[in-house]
Write a structure and sequence with these properties.
The protein has about 650 residues and is an alpha/beta fold. The chain has two domains: about 450 residues, Amino acid/polyamine transporter I, CATH 1.20.1740; about 140 residues. It has 21 helices and nine strands. Strands 3, 4, 5, 6, 7, 8 and 9 form a seven-stranded mixed β-sheet that branches. It has a two-stranded parallel sheet with strand order 1-2. β3, α19 and β4 form a beta-alpha-beta unit.
Length: about 650
């Protein structure tokens, strides 16, 4: 009871399934939840560009300004593509759904793997960058980077387990605090420039640890590397298209408007920070040292001023809590993939607070592993970060090109200028993001990008194995080709009068054989379904009649909190009271198991396992082989079928 109370204190009281619509987000909260990742990337994207250009000498650092403008142009193209996705695919899923529907299963799985890896790295990069902002203000905390990062991940995990709406309210504060702080810095920095109140810049306007000479010449390759490094500013743009169902109605309209607001803020902040970096004297530190943003902050507001610390802490919070975007999207995306049987079905289950708790916990564990492996250094993680992002961008926009081409097959289609514009923009965007993907793979390969390039096929392989397993189970349980004849008459002269309840959540070979087992030993049999998923219950009712089982009572009990044990126990108490002499009710739970008995031959066992809260007795049926046409895959034959 103590543990239960602690859990309720931390997570909160369970929410009923009927409250799911009340947990949706307004545009104000959704901007904080889904945009924190994208907006927070402005704190390190400019620095990523400068770290590449500095190899060509401080004179090359001025190239960061046109590079930033090119990145913003690409940002607008990608954002336009996802704006179209939001309206074309209102159920969410982003690149995964778009790629699967338009390009096929394999591109869809590649997009899914890329997105999942991207969200894991989002948590690791965001939290690590947040810790970097903290250690910039308090250098004495540098040795404790990893423990601090893991504590932050644990905190974000708990907040997300409490529910989307509650976490959205909490995370709105640091997001808007960061937006206000950056905008104030940009405006005040520009005012100081106009009034001539800017410290005299050193040679090349920007210096790096006193090293002025170039170690490499400024080539197209260096510029492309800088461009690809700065493209980390685009990370998170896809988040809104993945989480459309989390918005209040009308979902697509609200999601589209939120996307426009996010891109406007993102481009303004990124251009502003890069512009100030080119006009204020700062140092680019390749290893440790104050971040570029913190130096601009100190130059604009002054070192150790209230506004300086305000922006430093706002940056810490937004970077640390920007991981919340991944927490909002990773579990939702994983649930969509799991519904397609490419990930474990447990990822589709709602937790107590109407969030996908299993996905949230999985994300936290893997992200903590990444943080520990890379010592919470965001620059070590950034090369891994961008590859998966742009691969997802490319597949999504290519899928949208195919989507528009499919429009030609609709009746009454007319190739007007609007259609051509959408097709052209998505095609151009796919080309640009594909080019950036190639540059990232080449330039960042030796820096760690090879890990993602290897990881994506591995994740796809795991998905395929999981899907094959579920297909084999489905083939074992299918009733295709069988003719329903209704319940079989028992061969026993004197049936037991013990009340028996057979748990049924669907009709398949296993559940029908368990039902037949109960009917062969008792004349007091009922079927029970607990309504956790209303759609599943509707299907069960329909198939109950199709399989001529109406003579057997089917009881449906509601479970508003998606719990199985409590509604079942209450139901059993009610049944016990309703029976003569209060005879305890026996519960039969269908159980399916695959047994490899002989090489190249599989057997399926369906079990009726009787259980009662005062004791348990096991009963297992002997499998009977199917007719010869099923040779090579012998299954238990459901006696209810002919």
């Amino acid at each position: 009871m103590g543990n239960f109370s602690i859990r309720r204190t931390i997570i909160g009281e369970p929410l009923a399934t009927s409250q799911v619509s009340h947990q949706r987000l307004s545009k104000f909260k959704a901007l904080a939840v889904f945009s924190s990742d994208a907006l927070s990337s402005t704190s390190y994207a400019t620095e990523a560009i400068l770290l590449v250009l500095v190899a060509a000498g401080t004179g090359a650092l001025a190239i960061s300004w046109p590079v930033a403008l090119g990145i913003v142009a690409l940002m607008l193209v990608v954002a336009f593509s996802y704006y179209q996705t939001v309206h074309a695919y209102p159920n969410g899923g982003g690149a995964y759904i778009v790629s699967k529907d338009n390009l096929g299963t394999w591109p869809g799985l590649v997009a899914a793997a890329s997105l999942l890896i991207d969200y894991i790295l989002t948590v690791a990069v965001s939290v690590s960058a947040g810790v970097a902002a903290l250690t910039s203000a308090f250098p004495e905390l540098e040795p404790n980077r990893v423990p601090i990062a893991i504590i932050i991940v644990a905190f974000i995990t708990v907040m997300n387990l409490r529910g989307v709406k509650e976490s959205g309210t909490f995370f709105s504060i640091p997001t808007y605090a960061f937006i206000v702080g950056i905008m104030l810095m940009i405006v005040w920095g520009l005012i100081r420039m106009v009034t001539g109140n800017v410290p005299a810049p050193l040679e090349g306007q920007v210096v790096t640890d006193g090293v002025i000479q170039a170690s490499e010449s400024l080539t197209l390759f260096i510029i492309l590397r800088a461009f690809s490094a700065g493209c980390t500013a685009l990370t998170g743009i896809e988040a809104i298209s993945n989480g459309i169902p989390a918005f209040k109605t009308p979902e697509s309209k609200n999601a589209g408007q939120t996307l426009i607001i996010m891109v406007a803020m993102l481009s303004t902040m990124f251009i502003g920070i890069t512009f100030l970096a080119n006009h204020y004297p700062i140092e680019v530190h390749a290893h440790g040292g104050p971040t570029v943003l913190s130096q601009i902050n100190a130059e604009v507001f002054g070192q150790n001023t209230p506004l300086f610390y305000y922006l430093q802490f706002a940056t810490l919070f937004i970077l640390s809590l920007a991981a919340n975007t991944a927490y909002a999207d990773f579990p939702r995306l994983a649930s969509l993939i799991a519904k397609d049987r490419y990930l474990p079905r447990q990822l589709t289950n709602f937790g107590d607070r109407l969030v996908y708790s299993n996905g949230i916990i999985l994300l936290a564990i893997v992200a903590c592993v990444m943080i520990a492996l890379f010592n919470a250094e965001e620059h070590n993680l950034l090369p891994l970060y961008a590859v998966g992002v742009f691969l997802g961008f490319t597949l999504s926009q290519t899928g949208m090109v195919v989507h528009w081409l499919k429009e030609r097959n609709k009746e009454g289609f007319k190739a007007d200028n609007t259609w051509r514009f959408k097709l052209g923009m998505n095609g151009f965007g796919a080309f640009c993001t594909f080019t950036v993907s190639l540059v990232l793979m080449v330039t960042k390969f030796t820096e760690g990008a090879w890990l993602v390039i290897v990881a994506i096929p591995l994740v796809v392989g795991v998905m395929v194995v999981i899907h094959r397993h579920y297909n084999e189970v489905a083939a074992s349980l299918t009733l295709d080709g069988l003719v329903p004849t209704g319940p079989r008459t028992s061969r026993l002269k004197d049936l037991n009068h013990t009340p028996m309840v057979v748990m049924m959540n669907s009709i398949n070979r296993c559940s029908l054989q368990a039902l037949d087992y109960a009917l062969q030993i008792s004349d007091n049999v009922r079927a029970l379904a607990i309504a956790v998923e209303p759609e599943q219950i509707d299907v069960l009712r329909k198939r109950w009649s199709e399989w001529k089982l109406d003579s057997i009572p089917l009881d449906i009990i509601e479970s508003p909190f998606r719990n199985i044990s409590e509604p079942l126990i209450q139901y059993l108490h009610t049944r016990d009271e309703a029976t003569a002499n209060h005879i305890p009710t026996m519960v039969v739970v269908p159980e399916f198991g695959r047994v490899r008995a002989l090489p190249h031959r599989r057997h399926a066992l369906s079990a009726g396992r009787g259980r009662h809260r005062r004791g348990a007795t096991g009963h297992r049926l002997t499998p009977r082989p199917l007719p010869p046409k099923h040779t090579g895959a012998a299954y238990a034959w459901p006696p209810l079928c002919r």
